[in-house]
Amino acid sequence: MFRIARRIAVTSFAIAIAVLGTEAHATPRAPINPLKGAAGGAFIGQGNRTVAPFAHVRFCATSPSECSDGAGPSTVELTPSMLALLKRVNSRVNAAIEPYMPDGLETWVVNPDRGNCHDYAVTKRHDLIRAGWPSASLRLAVVYTRAGEGHLVLLVRTTEGDLVLDNLTSSIVPWNKSGLRFVSVEAGDKPRVWYSMR
């Protein structure tokens, strides 16, 4: 009995060494790296289905074309030209809309003269789609800032990870380096459907 147990233990140890040896010699996947730190599994986890923000429900009712089912791939290859497009749209929208904190009922508007975080986010999504970016890879996300304030950003799924376009910064960063706490996100293929974040 002892000899059999010893043989099983030795065999198991040999298999483990072989597996570890194979993994040690495996070549890691090199990132495209137009955005340093974005690669390496930087994809946000999605939880259970949840209620959409009421302002988004109203936005879809008044602008149904902005909430139609997503088209194209859900993950975009982040080539230098695609990254340049993201930066161009992000910078243009951040500069075009004058920051403004409205009183009363929150209304989301595409391309206003002045607006809040949600106006920046829906405008960036709108402009990227018009420029040919696949809508299925674009998702609005409800977050909290470092200061604990409710906020809305645009999340873009690329081969280098999920990237954040935010009106509070001109930088485009991976979601896990943004300093934001993610609460919920819309589905790329079904924008009227929202999910909580893990």
CATH class (first level) name: Alpha Beta
CATH hierarchy: architecture: Roll
What is the residue-mean pLDDT, rounded to a whole number?
83
- Taken as a percent bin, the fraction of beta residues is 15-25%
Question: What is the helical fraction, as a range of percent?
Answer: 25-40%
What's the overall geometry? globular
What this model shows, in words?
The chain is α+β, with helices and mostly antiparallel strands and 198 residues long. The protein has helices at 2-24, 54-62, 80-96, 117-130, and strands spanning 46-50, 98-99, 114-115, 138-144, 150-158, 161-165, 173-174, 181-186, 194-197. It has a 7-stranded antiparallel beta sheet, covered by helices on one side. It has a two-stranded parallel sheet with strand order 2-3. β8 (181-186) and β9 form a beta hairpin. α3 packs across α4 (117-130). It starts with a helix and ends with a strand. Mean pLDDT is 83; it is low at 1-41.
